[in-house]
Amino acid sequence: MAHEAGLDRTYVSGMERQIRHPTITSVEKVATALGVTFGQLLD
């Protein structure tokens, strides 16, 4: 998923473990990689 989002896997892992604070841009990339909208991801 990190590869699909164009993000480093350790960065995504840090977001999942709540160690890293994602930017709006990185959240949007994750949403796109998952095939959902930004709003759906945050719900």
From TrEMBL:
Q: Which residues form the signal peptide?
A: none
Highest taxon of the lineage: Bacteria
Q: Where does the HTH cro/C1-type domain start and stop, copy by copy?
A: 1-41
This chain belongs to which protein, by name? Helix-turn-helix domain-containing protein
Q: Which organism is it from?
A: Phenylobacterium ferrooxidans
